[in-house]
């Protein structure tokens, strides 16, 4: 089974902005000396350590609460009002529109395309969920407001107490991570799913940047491999910038194909399928 991850909400929903959001459609379509003994022993130890890390990662995925069942009356469109980042006008200091997610849903509701009561609200990704991909040192670094300010490219955030940064900035990002991860499950069950937020393609396991704090795409893929019986994934990134985050995380993983230009998509999908 294959899973396709396509980034960016259609531009007609917000034509003035580039929207690095995550859509997951149609998963079936596309997605002998003493010294040598010492070296051998070290290799065995390294191998054992690697196995332990993978076991821990797998256990974290299996124990996560981010996958949950939804009623048949709900549509596989995921959004929470907590997605929107807005406090004291500081969000206006970055060209990225951090309140667009709510306006997208308001547009769909006002246009009669969507009923508010049928929208799925995700859970917040926990620290254990994030550790499926991220390093402990990277997550710890986010306790520094200066570090967060550098990642989201809003310098005044460095002056705020970290408790405020956690609540007003990082919590919305963690909710969106939960949405991206859940979208893969719903796409497999329903044939399509959309997380209105997410798509933070500049973040990898140990580094964030470009307004991307958590690697929700990499997390989505890791969860899908473990819990959805997914064998291959194609990431189609339609943003103007390269998705360097997930590229770093899966650059050596033959199960994951990514970073196709628009003109290459048709051929890539044909070859992939």
Describe the main β-sheet briefly: 6 strands, mixed
Q: Could you report the average pLDDT, rounded to the nearest whole number?
A: 81
How many runs of DSSP E, i.e. beta strands? 6
Helix-strand makeup class: alpha/beta
Distance separating the two termini = 10 Å
Q: Strand percentage, roughly?
A: 5-15%
User: Which stretches of 5+ consecutive residues score pLDDT under 50?
Assistant: 8-45
> What strand line-up does the widest sheet have?
3-4-2-1-5-6
**Order of H and E elements:** EEHEHHHHHEHEHEH
Number of helices: 9
Q: Identify the overall geometry.
A: globular
Helix content: 40-55%
Radius of gyration: 20 Å
GO molecular function, one term: histone deacetylase activity
GO cellular component, one term: histone deacetylase complex
Domain Histone deacetylase: 94-256
Cofactor: Zn(2+)
Characterise this structure.
With 273 residues, the protein is α/β, with parallel strands linked by helices. The protein is 42% helix and 9% strand. It contains 9 helices and 6 strands; from the N terminus they run ββαβαααααβαβαβα. Strands 3-4-2-1-5-6 form a 6-stranded mixed β-sheet, sandwiched between helices. Strand 5, helix 8 (244-250) and strand 6 form a beta-alpha-beta unit. InterPro entries: HDACs, His_deacetylse_dom, His_deacetylse_dom_sf, Ureohydrolase_dom_sf. Its cofactor is Zn(2+). GO terms for molecular function: histone deacetylase activity.
